[in-house]
Amino acid sequence: MKLKTIDPSWVWALALMILFFKALDVANGWTAESPAYPITHASTGRR
Asked: Structure pTM?
């Protein structure tokens, strides 16, 4: 298995995952609580 510097599919998967969690956070209303940490807020599972 060759080692690439950047695997496009990996980058796309990561970007889609981040967008997915951001969308979930918006639905949960994180904007009113902590707009500065959307990703961290999602990973904690708090609302």
From this structure: 0.42
